[in-house]
Design a protein that fits this description.
This protein is an alpha/beta fold. It has two domains: 13-345, Up-down Bundle (ABC transporter transmembrane region fold); 369-377 and 417-640, Rossmann fold (3-Layer(aba) Sandwich). It has helices spanning 13-19, 22-30, 34-66, 76-125, 128-132, 136-149, 151-178, 180-187, 190-225, 228-236, 240-263, 266-291, 304-345, 442-448, 472-478, 493-498, 506-515, 519-524, 542-556, 572-586, 621-627, 630-640, and strands at 369-376, 419-426, 431-435, 457-462, 465-466, 479-482, 560-564, 590-594, 606-611, 614-619. Strands 6-7-8-3-9-10 form a six-stranded mixed sheet, with helices on both faces. Helix 19 (542-556) packs parallel to helix 20. The chain is elongated and about 125 Å long. It starts with 12 loop residues before the first helix and ends in an 18-residue tail after the last helix.
C-alpha cells in the first residue's frame, strides 16, 4: 500500500509560543551552566549586601560620630572606623564585580555559541526543499544578526536584572527602616511607571521583529548581489544601478526602523529621570513638615543623619532602578529575536530517519535501484514569512521543474504530478540513462534515490530496501552524485577533493585526481594541490570544476552513482577528458545518468525515456531507435541541428545540447 508523504504545515509565531514558551526555553539553554550561574548569584547578593551597608554607615557618621545625638562631641576613633568601612566596601565590591563579569561573560557567550551551533545543526537536517524556498541571506541573518541580537540578554541582562533587583530590594528595605514615611513619597508614582513600561516594551518588541526582518532582507540582497554570480549577472545585463537602488531602499527602511526603535520609550525614561531628580527636593520639604509637626507621623524618627542617609540612598537607587527598567525593556525586545530563532529550531525536517532504520552494509551492497509505482509532486514551498526566493520559484511561489516549457511558460509542478506512476529497475553495475525533454522529471527521479525528497506514492528501493527504512548516513554513503554545475567552496583544490573523505591519505587524493583526468592540470598550477579555487570555483574553467567534482566522488567511492550530464557546455577536448573520467567513475558501479548529449549514452545498458512525468519507453540505444518513439525523436533533433559539413563536428556525435 503506498505511503503518503509527510504533511508539511506552516507554523506561525503564535503557534510556537503556545507550544513552548520562550522563557522556559531560555532557561533550558542556560541549564548546563548552573554552577557558574549560582556563583554569579552569590556574587550579586554579596555585592548588594555590601552596598546596603553604606547608608547605615552614613547615618552612623552623622548621628554617632560627627554629631552624636547624646550631645557629646565628635568621636574621631569611631569616625575613623566608619570611614575605613566606607572605603573598604567599594574596593571589595569592585573585586566581586570583576569576578562576576568574567562569570557572566563566560556563561552568556557559551550559551550563545550553543544556540548558534544548535541552529546550524538543525538547518543541516532540513530537507532540500526548505533551502530552495528560503533565501540564503535570510538564513545567514538568523545565524548572525538574530543570535548576535540576543548576546546582551545572555551575557549581561540576566545578571543586571538580578543585581539591580537585589539592589533595589535592599535599598527599599533600607529606606523603610530609615523612614517609612519618606519611602511612601518615593513609591507613590511607581505603579504608573510600571504600567507605562509594559506598554513601551510591547511597542519595542514589535519594532524589534520588524527591524530584524528588514535586516534579513538587507543580508539577502547583499548575499545575492555581491556574490560572484550576482556581480557577473549585474554586469552582463547592466543592472548595477538598480541593484544599488534596491540596497539603498532596504537600507533606508532599516535606518527608519532603527531610529524608531531608539526613540521608543525616550519620553518614558525622561519622565522617570525627572521624577528622581526632583524627589530629593520633595523629601526635604516633607521632612521639614514632619519635623515641625505639620505632618504628625513620627517626627522623632527624622534626624539629620536619617535625612542625609535617605537622600543618599534615594539618589543611589535611581541608577539601578533606571537600569532595571531599561533591561526589562531590552528583554521584551529580545523575546522577539528569540522567537525568530526558535521558529527555525521548531521546524521539523520533512526527511527524517525512522525508528529502527536499517543501515546498509557497504560490503554486501549490490546497488540495485528500483522505482516502484512512484508518483510525486513537489510540496508547497516551506519557508518562514518573507523568505520565499522568487529566483527559484515563480511569482506563485511554486517550484519550477527543469525550467520553462518549450513555449516559454512556467510549469508549476506544485499543482500536478512531477512523476506519475513511474516504475523502473536498474540492475547492479548497470549504466542506466534517463532522457526526455525539459520538464519531464529527469532530475526529480534521481533526487528521490538519495531521499532529497520523499515519494508521494509508491516506493524507491535499494537492494530491496525502501529508502525511507534506511539510515540517512548509510544511504548518503551508498549514493554519490556529480551535478551539471558542481559546487566548489572557497579553499584549496586538496580540500575540495578531500571533502568527500576528510581522513583520506594524500596518495588517495592524488589517485582520485588521476582517475578524474585532472592531476596533470593541477600540477601545472604554481601551488599545485594548494591552489585556491575561489568562490564557487570561479578561478577554474568549467571542465576543471567538473573533473574536480568527479575526483571528489571517486574519493568517496559510492556503490551507486548519479550523473547529471556534465559535458553539455564543454568544448570537444575538455569533453573528451571529462568523458574518460566518467567512464572510470562508472566502472563496477550502478550508474544513473541524466543525458542531454545523447551521443554520450549510446552504450548504456538501458535507456529510460520520460515525458510529462511518465515513463514512455525503455531499452537499449538500438532498440529505442528501432522503436521510433521519444528517444529517436530526440536523437534526430540533435543531429538535425548540426550543419552538414561542419569541420569541427564528428558526424557520428551529437554535440549540441537539448
Amino acid at each position: 500500500m503506498p505511503r503518503p508523504s509527510p504533511v508539511v504545515t506552516h507554523l506561525t509565531a503564535a503557534d510556537l509560543r503556545q507550544r513552548d514558551p520562550v522563557l522556559p526555553r531560555i532557561a533550558r539553554l542556560l541549564r548546563p551552566y548552573r554552577g557558574k550561574i549560582t556563583l554569579v548569584l552569590v556574587a550579586v547578593l554579596a555585592a548588594a549586601a555590601l552596598q546596603a551597608m553604606v547608608p547605615f554607615l552614613t547615618r552612623a557618621v552623622f548621628d554617632d560620630a560627627l554629631f552624636p545625638l547624646d550631645g557629646g562631641g565628635p568621636r574621631l576613633d569611631l569616625l575613623a572606623w566608619l570611614v575605613a568601612g566606607m572605603c573598604a566596601i567599594p574596593i571589595v565590591a569592585a573585586l566581586i564585580g570583576i569576578v562576576q563579569i568574567w562569570l557572566t561573560s563566560t556563561v552568556g557567550n557559551s550559551a550563545m555559541a550553543d544556540l548558534r551551533g544548535d541552529l546550524f545543526e538543525h538547518l543541516q537536517k532540513m530537507e532540500l526543499a526548505f533551502f530552495t524556498a528560503t533565501k540564503t541571506g535570510a538564513i545567514q541573518s538568523r545565524l548572525a544578526n538574530d543570535v548576535a541580537g540576543v548576546r546582551t540578554v545572555l551575557t549581561d541582562t540576566a545578571t543586571t536584572i538580578v543585581q539591580n533587583s537585589v539592589t533595589v530590594t535592599a535599598a527599599f528595605v533600607s529606606m523603610v527602616v530609615l523612614s517609612w514615611q519618606l519611602t511612601v513619597l518615593t513609591l507613590f508614582v511607581m505603579p504608573l511607571f510600571i504600567g507605562l513600561q509594559f506598554r513601551v516594551g510591547r511597542a519595542r518588541q514589535r519594532l524589534a521583529r520588524r527591524t530584524q526582518e528588514s535586516l534579513s532582507e538587507m543580508t539577502a540582497i547583499t548575499e545575492e548581489a555581491l556574490s560572484v554570480s550576482g556581480i557577473l549577472l549585474a554586469k552582463v545585463f547592466n543592472r548595477a544601478e538598480s541593484e544599488v537602488e534596491r540596497y539603498r531602499e532596504a537600507n533606508r527602511r532599516q535606518t527608519r526602523l532603527q531610529v524608531d526603535q531608539a526613540m521608543t520609550g525616550r519620553t518614558f525614561f525622561a519622565m522617570v529621570q525627572t521624577f528622581f531628580a526632583i524627589t530629593p527636593a520633595l523629601i526635604y520639604l516633607v521632612a521639614g513638615w514632619i519635623v515641625t509637626g505639620n505632618v504628625p507621623v513620627g517626627a522623632d524618627t527624622i534626624t539629620a543623619g536619617t535625612l542625609v542617609a535617605f537622600t543618599t540612598l534615594q539618589s543611589r537607587l535611581q541608577m539601578p532602578l533606571l537600569q532595571l527598567m531599561r533591561v526589562t525593556l531590552d528583554v521584551q525586545t529580545s523575546m522577539a529575536l528569540f522567537r525568530r530563532i526558535f521558529e527555525y529550531l521548531d521546524l521539523e525536517p520533512a526527511i527524517t530517519e525512522r525508528p529502527g532504520a536499517v543501515a546498509l552494509d557497504p560490503e554486501r551492497l549490490r546497488g540495485r535501484v528500483e522505482l516502484r509505482g512512484v508518483r510525486f509532486r513537489y510540496p508547497e514551498p516551506r519557508s518562514l514569512s518573507g523568505t520565499v526566493n522568487r529566483d527559484r520559484f515563480g511569482e506563485s511561489g511554486v517550484r519550477i521543474e527543469d525550467g520553462p516549457d518549450p513555449d516559454g511558460t512556467e510549469r508549476p509542478i506544485g499543482s500536478g504530478w512531477a512523476l506519475d506512476d513511474v516504475s523502473l529497475v536498474v540492475e547492479p553495475g548497470q549504466l542506466a540513462a534517463i532522457v526526455g525533454p525539459s520538464g519531464s522529471g529527469k532530475t526529480t527521479a534521481t533526487y528521490l534515490v538519495p531521499r532529497f525528497y520523499d515519494v508521494t506514492e509508491g516506493a524507491v528501493l535499494i537492494d530491496g530496501y525502501d529508502v525511507r527504512d534506511l539510515t540517512l548516513s548509510s544511504l548518503a554513503d551508498a549514493v554519490g552524485m556529480v551535478t551539471q554545475e558542481p559546487y566548489l567552496f572557497h579553499g584549496t583544490i586538496r580540500d575540495n577533493i578531500a571533502y568527500a573523505r576528510p581522513d583520506a591519505a594524500p596518495e588517495e587524493i592524488v589517485r582520485a585526481a588521476r582517475d578524474a583526468n585532472i592531476h596533470d592540470r593541477i600540477m601545472s598550477f604554481p601551488d599545485g594541490y594548494e591552489t585556491i579555487t575561489g568562490e564557487r570555483g570561479y578561478r577554474l574553467s568549467g571542465g576543471e570544476k567538473q573533473r574536480l567534482a568527479i575526483a571528489r566522488v571517486l574519493l568517496k567511492d559510492p556503490r551507486i552513482l548519479i550523473l547529471d550530464e556534465a559535458t553539455s557546455a564543454l568544448d570537444n577536448e575538455t569533453e573528451r577528458l571529462v568523458q574518460e573520467a566518467l567512464e572510470r567513475a562508472t566502472r563496477s558501479r550502478t550508474t544513473i545518468a541524466i543525458a542531454h548529449r545523447l551521443s554520450t549514452i549510446r552504450s548504456a545498458d538501458v535507456i529510460f525515456g520520460l515525458e510529462d512525468g511518465r515513463l514512455v519507453e525503455h531499452g537499449t540505444h538500438d532498440q529505442l531507435m528501432a522503436a521510433g518513439g521519444l528517444y529517436k525523436r530526440l536523437y534526430d533533433e540533435q543531429f538535425s541541428r548540426v550543419p552538414a559539413g561542419t569541420p569541427w563536428c564528428d558526424p557520428r556525435r551529437a554535440d549540441i545540447p537539448l
